[in-house]
Structure formats: C-alpha cells, structure tokens
TrEMBL record, chains A, B:
This is TetR/AcrR family transcriptional regulator. Residues 9-69 form the HTH tetR-type domain. Residues 32-51 bind DNA. The keyword Transcription regulation applies. Keywords: DNA-binding, Transcription, Transcription regulation.
DNA sequence: TTACTTTTGTACTGATTAATACAAAAAAAT
DNA sequence: ATTTTTTTGTATTAATCAGTACAAAAGTAA
C-alpha cells in the first residue's frame, strides 16, 4: 500500500529507551518536550509525528520499562541454583555495586506516586507489573519450599507478599537515601526471615 | 518593637495543613500556586507574603507532614500491649477500613520519588523520617524480644530493617493498586515472619 | 479621629509550556 | 530526472506558570 517515501532515521525502540531515561531522571511533569527532543536526538516535528504527544511517548516509555524490567526480574528469579541466591540477586538488582553511581529509582514506582491517581494508564501498568512480579516471586518461593530449602510452615502466599513488599520498600528507600548499610540490613533481614 | 498593624486572619498551621493536602493529591509540579490559594483560602498576596514562594511552602508542608506523621507512628509503636498488635496497627495505618475511600499515598515517599534527586530539602527530610522510623521499629521489636514475644534467633537490626522495608513497600503498593487482598497477604506475611 | 502598619486581592509580567504550521530537504519509486 | 511521500527543523501560538506591583482595606495604637 504505502508508496514508501523517505524512511525514518531512527529506531522507535531507541527513542523510547532514551525517553525512559529522561522520564526516569526528571519525572513526567519536570521534563519538557525540549528535553525529550534533545535527549532522543529528534526534532519536534519528528517526535510529534512519530508519537503524537508527550503523554503518548510517556505511555510507550512506561510500557517498555515495564516489559524490559519484568523480563529481567523473572529471569533472575528463574535462574538455576539455590532460591536464596535468586532472591538475593533480585534484592540487589539495581543497587549499584561501586558506591559511586547514583541510583535513580524505579520509573514505575515514581510514576505511581506522581500520577497513578490521575492517570489510568499508569495505574494499569503498575498493577500489571506488581501482579506479574508477585507471581514470579511466588513461584520462586514455592520452588524453595518444594526442594526443602524453605520451610513449609509459613504459607507461600504470605512469604511472597512479604518479600514483594520488602523489595518495593527497598526500591523506594535506597535510591532516596543511598544508605548502603541500611540496604544491607534490609536485604539480610528479608532473606533471614524466609530461610 | 512591632507597631503591630492588622493581624493575620489565618493560622499558619491551618494553611500548611491545607497545603499538605494539595501537595499530597497533586504532587509538587502538578499543582499550581492558584490551586494552593484556592485550597488554603488565601489570596496570592497573603500567601507570598507569609511563605515567600511555592517551594518554601512546600518545605513547610513536608516538615509538618513529617513531624505529625512520625509522632503518630511512634505513638502507635509505643502503645502498651503485645508488640504484635503495635506492628499490625502500624501496617494497617492509613489503609482505609471501609473499602470506599481512596488512599492518596505518603507525601514523603512521593516527594522522594518526584524530587529527591534535585531537591536537597526533600532528601534530608526523607532520610530523617526513615531514620527515626527505623529506630522506633527497632525499639518495638527489641521490646518484643525482651518479653519473649519475638524470638531472639534473628537480630533486631535485621528484623527492623525487614519490617521497615516491607512497611514502605506496602505504602507504595497499596495506594497505587487499592488491592485489599494483596495488602492482607503483605501484612499477614510480614507479621508471620517475625512472630 | 489620626497616624501607622500590615494584610489582602487584582492586575500584571516575563518566562516557559505543549503543541501546531509549514516550508525545505531527503529518500524511494517510476 | 521527476514525482511522490515522508521526515525534519524552525517559527509560531495560545495557554499556563511562578512571582511581583500596588492600591485599597482593615486592623492597632495614640
């Protein structure tokens, strides 16, 4: 059908990835469309032609962040080896090893705080993310209980709920405080209550 | 000294309390100074004369929210009776009982996500709040361990860290999802790993 | 009442915002 | 090369923003 004129000079995913970074460092309201143009390398025309509006680009960014993130986290939880190592890896995920880099926090959590109340798209994606993550955590803990690595005394549902919540707490507390000692207490404490 | 002219027609704390509500429902960037005037009942002149700028009013709101909140939470943790009841009360704090009202989330957590990276005041107050809360939780758990209510096998530091983090996770997850069943799993799971 | 001080609301300013209009450029197809 | 289609950057628009200026109002003190 398409008579195919000049082809695009950019990959959509690359632009969205760049947008994710902008929204993650600045939040939705704080970053301007100019910031988005500069960081993505697109001119205004291209950006609006390709994505329609700031908010639509934001939705794409949220979706992509969600999809890439949930996949990475599930992968961590499904690694072979002791379940304890999987859970520790997840807790330590996105906590920079060297104490230099700054952690910018989770885009979805920040989006939920900033916009979930007024933005149905944010709410929907956040819910979906939490839901999938809880399932993946549940499976990992269940696996641990089946192999005997984790006691069967406490229910899988409750252990998964506790772990999920503590994980999210860490992902709020650490980026804001950059307190490594506290992060260690949280991580060790969370694991020690399960194992 | 002061020749004392016309007295103010408003109480500072009442205005700040109103501002807390505005910032809590809208976030810093999303609410306008007009919104603040309308919700506080002050005219622009009065508001700027009394508080200087939007950001200064925001600081006052954060401080007040912090102070009122930390006091309430400490009070809950220091109630007499089983420590388990105290910890449950804290977890259930600000989770509306009737399933009607909407929960607007914690102003400090949202502020940390939206602004901690660019706003030293936010970062400082958030750190302070977390620090005081961890201490209060630590004391409660220690008390439980001294009375034998909580096992001494796990260290107080780690239990407190885990509980703090799970509590914060809940305060992120619940307002964004309004999922009561999940909240129950989290609360029960968190308590069951301690007791 | 008079003098003085502070509050209060309105009108305004300059800056910035998201979004649009549009012409020039660039590639593909014929 | 010419036509066609799309991209791309610039200029622009209308709205909104935080903050200011200022005169009128309203209280206190004498």
């Amino acid at each position: 059908m398409s008579k195919s004129g000049r082809p695009r000079e950019f990959k959509d995913t690359a632009v969205i990835d760049a947008a994710v970074e902008v929204f993650r460092t600045n939040g939705y309201e704080t970053c301007s469309t100019d910031d988005l143009c500069k960081q993505t390398g697109l001119g205004r025309g291209s950006l609006y032609n390709a994505f329609g509006s700031k908010h639509e680009l934001y939705e794409h960014a949220l979706r992509r962040y969600h999809e890439v993130g949930i996949q990475a986290q599930i992968e961590i939880l499904e690694q072979e080896g002791p379940v304890k190592d999987c859970l520790r890896s997840l807790l330590e995920w996105e906590i920079p090893k060297g104490e230099e880099a700054d952690s910018r926090g989770c885009l979805l959590i920040n989006a939920a705080g900033e916009r979930a109340k007024n933005d149905p798209v944010v709410e929907k994606i956040f819910k979906q993310h939490v839901d999938l993550l809880e399932q993946a955590i549940w499976k990992a803990i269940r696996r641990g209980q089946e192999t005997g690595e984790i006691s069967n005394v406490k229910s899988t549902d409750e252990l998964a709920g506790m772990f999920l919540s503590s994980y999210y707490g860490l992902r709020v507390i650490f980026p804001a405080t950059m307190n490594y000692a506290l992060a260690e207490r949280i991580i060790d404490g969370t694991l020690d209550t399960i194992f």
